[in-house]
Design a protein that fits this description.
Largest sheet: 8 strands, mixed
Number of strands: 10
Mean pLDDT: 94
Strand order of the largest sheet: 7-6-5-4-3-8-10-9
CATH class: Alpha Beta
Helix content: 25-40%
CATH architecture: 3-Layer(aba) Sandwich
Number of helices: 13
Length: 429
């Protein structure tokens, strides 16, 4: 199957470019025809080179530097890594690999934890339990990685970004940024200067620390990862650090990274190439091949749910209680109704996600929204929380999900979750 394309004016280049004609998530319904979510033939071990459905773009410098015409046959990769968020798209990507015949022992699930090491939380309580349940139910290894202190350490950052930690065959590894030790040293000197009332030294240390790095604000709502730094620093850079330093991936290997972006999610993602070289590709220096395959990029929302339905998988229960996306609970792109759901499900006390953001807005004198603070932003919102599935509600609120709950029991009918077709708003696209 191929994806239809159309010509569209590109504001980056000032010319006409080929743009995939896709079904936007906001337009997709349960009645949308299934195009890619149906059964596929096994190709593993048959020397099949995977070609993109749409020829890759070569418009930007990044496009040209990372361009690939086709993937290697799946069996030639040392390891196939699924970036598993616990959402529907990464789940469908995993199921697609299995249906293509990829052995489970060739696959790893990588999950970037976005709030480890912090008293303040950012993610849904059920995300980690669900991720672990899928790993155990399928018998596929799961490896965690994270930036110490997570999201909040970046929001309040003065000085170096925090170290990256990850699991590999040798245990938990730590990679410290070059400026980390100096930043910690400066912070200790500032504490001592305050005790001694040494204002000159205090100011000198503060200037040097802030020159190393200074945020003290939330990420911006936008596609630019230099300002929407949460995706860059908590996921992309963390993954690259793991590849560069993990014993099994730093050299002498061929890696295929599976990522679950889809064109239907946003205009920005509609321009992504299906296959490309990863930024950590280092064939000459380290004999390390790293390719990226966005295997569901041309799929509609209906295709994704069809793949999950055919495997009879219970998706992350956040969908069952009404969320349309499995982003961070405190995602910057949350609409008012999403924030109201977070408040309703997880509470609004001082240790709860909603109130932590309210307090942070006051401390930073910086609001998530461009115009109003969070309480004002959600004031007129209507809750979408669906309480009809009591077990899903318990799973989400308590942060629990067992491996035996991954598959729908025989005799029960698989059902679309209530948030399945609620459009594309509320996640980073």
């Amino acid at each position: 199957m191929t994806t239809e394309i159309r010509m569209q004016f590109d504001f980056d280049t000032g010319g006409l470019v080929e743009t995939p004609d896709v079904i936007r998530d906001r337009d997709c319904t349960i009645d949308t025809p299934v195009k890619y979510g149906g059964p596929v033939e096994s190709i593993y071990g048959q020397n099949v080179e995977i070609m993109p459905k749409i020829k890759g773009r070569t418009v930007t410098e990044h496009d040209r530097a990372h361009y690939m015409e086709k993937l290697l046959p799946l069996e030639t990769y040392t390891k196939i890594i699924v970036l598993f968020s616990s959402g529907k798209d990464s789940l469908a990507s995993l199921l697609h690999l299995l249906e293509l015949g990829v052995p489970k022992e060739k696959i790893e699930l990588w999950h970037h934890i976005i709030d480890r090491g912090s008293d303040k939380k950012m993610d849904h309580k059920v995300t980690i339990p669900y991720t672990e349940a899928v790993s155990k139910a399928f018998g596929i290894p799961l490896k965690y990685s994270w930036r110490e202190g997570g999201f909040w350490s970046e929001v309040y950052r003065r000085g170096s970004t925090a170290p990256v930690r990850f699991e590999d065959e040798e245990g938990i590894q730590t990679v410290e940024p070059k400026a980390w030790h100096r930043s910690e040293e400066l912070k200790e000197m500032m504490q001592q200067a305050e005790l001694e009332d040494n204002l000159d030294l205090l100011e000198k240390c503060r200037k040097e620390l802030d020159a190393i790095g200074y945020r003290m604000k939330f990420p911006a709502k936008g596609a630019d990862l230099s300002t929407r730094y949460c995706s860059a620093y908590l996921k992309i850079m963390v993954g690259s650090t793991v590849i560069a330093h993990s014993a099994s991936t730093k050299r002498n290997c061929k890696l295929l990274i599976i990522s679950g972006e889809r064109r239907g999610e946003s205009n920005n993602r509609s321009r992504y190439n299906e296959i490309e070289k990863h930024g950590m590709n280092a064939e000459i220096k380290n004999n390390r091949t790293v390719h990226v395959w966005r295997s569901v990029i041309d799929w509609s929302l209906r295709d994704v749910w069809e793949k999950i339905r055919r495997f009879r998988i219970n998706p992350n229960p956040v969908y069952a209680v009404g969320f349309n996306r499995c982003s961070c609970a405190g995602c910057l792109f949350n609409q008012p109704s999403h924030w109201l759901a977070v408040k309703e499900l997880y509470g609004s006390g001082k240790d709860d996600i909603f109130q932590q953001f309210v307090d942070a807005e006051k401390e930073l004198e910086f609001t998530l929204d461009h115009h109003v603070d969070l309480p004002t932003y959600v004031r007129d919102a209507t809750s979408f929380v669906d309480r009809s599935n009591q077990r899903a509600l318990e799973q989400v609120m308590n942060g629990e999900f067992r491996p035996d709950e991954v598959f729908v029991p025989e005799g029960q009918t698989w059902q679309f979750p209530s948030g399945a077709f609620r459009g594309s708003e509320g996640g980073p696209c």
